[in-house]
Automatic annotation (TrEMBL):
<dbReference type="Pfam" id="PF02844">
    <property type="entry name" value="GARS_N"/>
</dbReference>
<dbReference type="InterPro" id="IPR020562">
    <property type="entry name" value="PRibGlycinamide_synth_N"/>
</dbReference>
<keyword id="KW-0067">ATP-binding</keyword>
<dbReference type="InterPro" id="IPR016185">
    <property type="entry name" value="PreATP-grasp_dom_sf"/>
</dbReference>
<dbReference type="InterPro" id="IPR011761">
    <property type="entry name" value="ATP-grasp"/>
</dbReference>
<dbReference type="GO" id="GO:0006164">
    <property type="term" value="P:purine nucleotide biosynthetic process"/>
</dbReference>
<dbReference type="InterPro" id="IPR013815">
    <property type="entry name" value="ATP_grasp_subdomain_1"/>
</dbReference>
<feature type="domain" description="ATP-grasp">
    <location>
        <begin position="112"/>
        <end position="320"/>
    </location>
</feature>
<dbReference type="InterPro" id="IPR020559">
    <property type="entry name" value="PRibGlycinamide_synth_CS"/>
</dbReference>
<dbReference type="GO" id="GO:0009113">
    <property type="term" value="P:purine nucleobase biosynthetic process"/>
</dbReference>
<keyword id="KW-0658">Purine biosynthesis</keyword>
<dbReference type="InterPro" id="IPR000115">
    <property type="entry name" value="PRibGlycinamide_synth"/>
</dbReference>
<dbReference type="GO" id="GO:0046872">
    <property type="term" value="F:metal ion binding"/>
</dbReference>
<keyword id="KW-0436">Ligase</keyword>
<dbReference type="InterPro" id="IPR020560">
    <property type="entry name" value="PRibGlycinamide_synth_C-dom"/>
</dbReference>
<protein>
    <submittedName>
        <fullName>Phosphoribosylamine--glycine ligase</fullName>
    </submittedName>
</protein>
<dbReference type="GO" id="GO:0005524">
    <property type="term" value="F:ATP binding"/>
</dbReference>
């Protein structure tokens, strides 16, 4: 009998997860619960239910009515709301951690305190404040720094000295603003280096890495402009990155293993799902910037398009009760190919209001993407008409035997999205990657 699988999520990452589910053998029946319709996911699903990610009754009711025997949660919002816990109570195994374990993403203060308490390597110097008491003194001694609000901010909440503020007074103003809206602010030493994302399958204490990916958060070519949810990403055929050694990668996996272990020691919570470490390689060593309790968007598209092992086999071993090591017994393989993802976004996405350009229409047309693949993100679709929203529209994936080929295919694919859109043509190019490598070499030399 075919397995009935529920996907909770509506992002481009969810579109890639839906594809991976459908590729599994025997072909399962996919049901999707989405906050807003994603036409890519809807096209793959047998049945779709639209509803809020805080409506636990509606989600569990939908899962039960469709006879789901497995659920995969795509994004942080349902995880934060306890959707994984609710589905588990309904006896449906879930790929996605419970509310308690999701704190690794939802509370930077929780993660930093946990790492400090158990001496986990890779934590930048940091201090958490719940009130303004002592912040001024701390800032005076610990500039340059970054200021991090607690809670989910869509990747846009972190304020970096030199970019968002310069003086102690400006930092104090930002801290006051953060503490007016959030329970804590974390003040962290400002690091310099190259960032990468490491996504791992995780079942209890077992952590299995996927190929590392480099993400591009800045809106404009040459890493200029404001931080966005991400403008694109790449991965390499050797499953390393041009500035990253196998040793660095092993260290990153080790840090994530320690984190799920100390999470268990501290809370009794077993982490089951995808764990994503946002790391920075610095001259003095590897540092962890953030944890996400889910795949990255678009990093999921990079790695899932390379996955050779049956995705549902992996999901079943993740949800296996307690930590009996089933995930360790699987031979998880990825194709030795390069991937480049470029996000096509509304032309005004991530720009300051004074730089907005007038657009005639928000309707986009989709042409043939050639060898590239398209993944829908935030678009509004009614019958055959597709409209832009204020967020990222379509992720374009290029895959090839090397980065040059993957980049060429992705770049060509972006031309298939016609309308008032933009993308970063430099993502995955040899010139940008060489700049990253030179940056790392320079930092290591001046250490
Ligand atoms: P996060 O949400 O913690 O990943 O932060 C978003 C972005 O802010 C990161 O991708 C980095 O570019 C930057 N960032 C975060 N923490 C630091 C840090 N300690 N030093 C320098 N930049 C940082
Ligand atoms: N690409 C960054 C994220 O998914 O959080």
């Amino acid at each position: 009998m075919n397995e009935n699988v529920l996907l909770v999520g509506n992002s481009a990452r969810g579109h890639a997860i839906a594809e991976a589910i459908i590729r599994s053998k025997p072909t399962p029946v996919l049901f999707a619960y989405m906050k807003a319709n994603n036409p890519g996911i809807a096209a793959l699903a047998d049945k779709v239910q639209i509803g809020g990610y805080d409506d636990l009754k509606k989600i569990t009711g939908f899962a039960r009515s469709q006879g789901a025997s497995l659920a995969v949660i795509d994004s942080e919002e349902p995880l934060k709301n306890g959707v994984a816990d609710a589905l588990e109570i309904a006896r449906i195994p879930v790929v996605g951690p419970g509310q308690l374990e999701t704190q690794l993403e939802t509370s930077k203060a929780f993660t930093r305190e946990l790492m400090k308490q158990y001496n986990v390597a890779g934590s930048p110097k940091s201090k958490t404040f719940r009130t303004m008491d002592g912040i001024e003194e701390y800032l005076k001694e610990n500039m340059p720094c970054v200021l991090k609000p607690d809670g989910l901010t869509g990747g846009k909440g972190v304020m970096v000295q030199g970019e968002h503020f310069n003086t102690v007074d400006e930092a104090l103003g930002i801290c006051l603003d953060i503490l007016t809206h959030r329970p804590t602010v974390v003040i962290e030493e400002k690091l310099e280096g190259e960032e990468f994302s490491l996504q791992c399958f995780c079942s209890g204490l077992i952590v299995v890495p996927m190929p590392p990916v480099q993400d591009h958060k800045r809106r404009l070519i040459g890493d200029q402009g404001l931080n966005t949810g991400s403008m694109g990403s790449y991965s390499c055929p050797d499953h390393l990155l041009p500035f990253l050694t196998q040793d660095d990668l092993n260290q990153a996996v080790d840090i994530l293993e320690q984190i799920v272990l100390v999470l268990y020691l501290e809370t009794g919570g077993y982490y089951r799902g995808i764990i994503y470490g946002g790391f920075m390689l610095t001259a003095p060593g590897l540092k962890l910037l953030e944890i996400n309790a889910r795949f990255g968007d678009p990093e999921a598209i990079n790695v899932l398009s390379l996955l050779e092992t049956d995705f549902l086999d992996i999901c079943r071993s993740i949800t296996c009760p307690r930590n009996y090591g089933k995930l360790n017994q699987l031979d998880i393989r990825f194709k030795p190919l390069a991937t480049v993802v470029k996000y096509v976004v509304p032309v005004n996405y991530g720009l300051p209001k004074n730089q907005y350009v007038q657009t005639a229409s928000d309707v986009i047309q989709l042409d043939n993407p050639g060898e590239a693949r398209l993944y829908y993100s935030s678009v509004a679709s009614k019958r055959t008409v597709i409209r832009l929203t204020s967020s990222r529209a379509v992720a374009v994936l290029g895959t090839g035997s090397d980065l040059a080929e993957a980049e060429r295919i992705a770049e060509q694919g972006t031309r298939a999205v016609i309308g008032a859109v933009d993308h970063r043509s430099d993502i995955g190019t040899a010139a940008l990657i060489a700049k990253r490598v030179r940056h790392m070499e320079k930092l290591k030399k001046t250490k």
